[in-house]
Amino acid sequence: MQQLQMVDLKRQYNKIKNEIDIAISNVIESTAFIGGKDVSALAAELSAYVGVKHTIPCANGTDALQIALMALGLKAGDEVITPSFTYIATVEVVLLLGLKPVFVDVLPDAFTMDPVSLEGAITPNTKAIIPVHLYGQSADMAPILEIASKHGIPVIEDNAQAIGGSYTFPDGRIVKTGAMGTISCTSFFPSKNLGCYGDGGAIFTNDDDLAVKMKMIANHGQKVRYYHEMVGCNSRLDSIQAAVLRIKLPLLDEYCDARRAAADYYDNTFSSHPMLTVPYRAPYAHHVYHQYTLIVEGFDRDTLHTRLAEKGIPSMIYYPVPCHKQEMLKPYGTHDAVLPVTNALNACVISLPMHTELTEEELKYITTSLLEILG
User: Fold this and answer.
1) What's the rounded mean pLDDT across residues 340-355?
2) Among 68, 109, 128, 226, which residue has the fewest nearby CB atoms (within 10 Å)?
């Protein structure tokens, strides 16, 4: 058995090596490294896949969030509501723009924004809501969108971990994650379900005016070269990364299915264990398992993490410190925020290897070893 990886990009690459190598070689041969045909073609293909009118490729997922907030024209001190149980980038861009983060709790089973907590956090100063589709599962968007619409607040979907997933509305409509908010943002970091071979990101919207504005912001605030109409930034997806993503996008559903099959194996092994709670599969969401995250109770999570490593099994803790308790947030007075579910989850979640190349032999070793540790 090969050395286990949290995400095995080498084996995934080997399966598509010929196509990838040709695509990269073609970009190099063309010397169109920035803004080439692969970038515009990828934008169109992503729009068709997600089901939106406009896709704006950019340099990374963090930039995508920042550009989205900039496009909404928020002013210093405006409040942006987001869960604390997320990667820091979601909050970082809020702070970078001089906005005020307001943290809400998450649902104890789905780990995504609690609509009740959201409703209670809205004030006249709330100018944006950022639900996070965490670990590959959509937030419960119907009530979130209803609350946002009632108060006239735009919604920015943080879809960095769930591209390929979908949400079923109460009326039966099935919509891809990334196609529900005013704006949506994703990351193409190599370990994502749709990952490139460097950094990359994209922004999605159905709003024509916002699309024009975000394209300008990502390109130094200009429509016409050297004529800068607004403050922007320099955030571009390079042609090599676009070429890689164009090879992988048609495989995304297959990749997500492989992750779900691995999750099925884990679930079947762990679901009856009294110390383990397997990831919740919300009836409204098609979970694509960017991470496979267990809740551990009755056994020290950090000890489990260490003992798995001793057996050659990588595991990760996403995230050991919630955003509202990070040192960088101390000046904002968020450390005492009342978020009981978030605070509890950070002490007991652990993520196991999850990727497209997991074999039954590897899954058996991981699950058997973990159960042996728990006794």
Assistant:
1) 97
2) 226
